[in-house]
């Protein structure tokens, strides 16, 4: 049987109808706004992590208008912990563009969708096909891997040529599908649950008998392992500073770059060496003797190794210096990375 014909799409669509996970954005009919939020959240992030954040987010911002008119800080706060915070800012801008240019109605055609901030070919294809049943393909890492295995294509998964090839294959399949959105979601679901990178569960695969890699016994080798991303090391010194009322001193990071726009304990960073207590004191307006080294930890992301040294400050009258003191119970209203949450909450139990 040649992969790519209708028997493949029929098998995938009927498998999805019976095996789709029950996820909070999979309402029938699909709600365009909830789908938009979920697709932004799912970019580079696993379903299990999105599940924790999705419902509180759409409860707080129940409509696209509510999201568009919210303050960016609040959007970042509701996104806290999901990482890749640029997506939150783009989603916010996207909601504003839908309200401004489309009277609050998410457009259904791929061109208008792709013109929205933060909406690339993948997200536009997901909304157009899953919500509006348009025949458009979508390709992400899961889809590329499945197509490579079905065709026994061993090329490196992230090569431009492989990605172009995958889009062409996915387009052909979407054109064969009874419901292209169901087919697209089926491929992503199969990739997330059965045709996974490792520990592949071919015995449960609905298209095993149409998979050339399964025939050839090469599923484990496809795609070939990616060369490891080179991680850059960054050295950070952070200070937990409280005023007399116990409120914590925080600062906002610049909008672009790592953890852009998020709040943090006052932090000095350097790409070559650990900042000294003298330097941290100079940043805060106190002396090194006012700072006590408390603990160190390493935070690892795909591209960075961040080595934190954590200080407490014995001064309770430091000027804010463009920063602000925030009562601890209000910390959750700010966008704060997981690493900085750990810092800001770490000294709760330490007496100064
Ligand atoms: N990953 C991204 N979008 C998805 C979706 N709609 N279903 C399953 N996994 C996804």
Describe the structure.
The protein is an alpha+beta fold and 352 residues long. It has two domains: 5-221, Hypothetical protein, domain 2 (Endonuclease III, domain 1, Orthogonal Bundle); 232-350, Nucleoside Triphosphate Pyrophosphohydrolase (Alpha-Beta Complex), CATH 3.90.79. The chain is built from 14 helices and seven strands. Strands 4-1-6-5 form a four-stranded mixed beta sheet, with helices on both faces. A three-stranded antiparallel beta sheet has the order 3-2-7, with helices on one face. Strand 5 and strand 6 form a beta hairpin. Helix 2 runs antiparallel to helix 8 (121-131) and helix 9 (141-150) packs across helix 11. Bound molecules: adenine (ADE). Adenine binds at residues 39, 42, 126, 130, 185, 188-189, 192. Residues 39, 42, 126, 130, 185, 188-189, 192 line the site of adenine.
Strand order of the largest sheet: 4-1-6-5
CATH fold name of the largest domain: Endonuclease III, domain 1
- Write out the CATH superfamily name of the largest domain: Hypothetical protein, domain 2
Calculate the mean pLDDT score and round it: 94
Q: Determine Rg (CA atoms, Å).
A: 24 Å
Tell me the series of helices and strands, N- to C-terminal. HHHHHHHHHHHHEEEEHEEEH
The backbone outline, from C-alpha atoms, is globular
What structural class is derived from the secondary structure elements? alpha+beta
Q: Class of the largest domain in CATH?
A: Mainly Alpha
State the end-to-end distance: 72 Å
Bound molecule types: adenine
Please tally the helical runs, counting DSSP H or I stretches of 4 or more residues.
Answer: 14
Q: Return the domain count.
A: 2
Low-confidence stretches: none
How large a portion of the residues is in β-strands, by DSSP E?
Answer: 5-15%
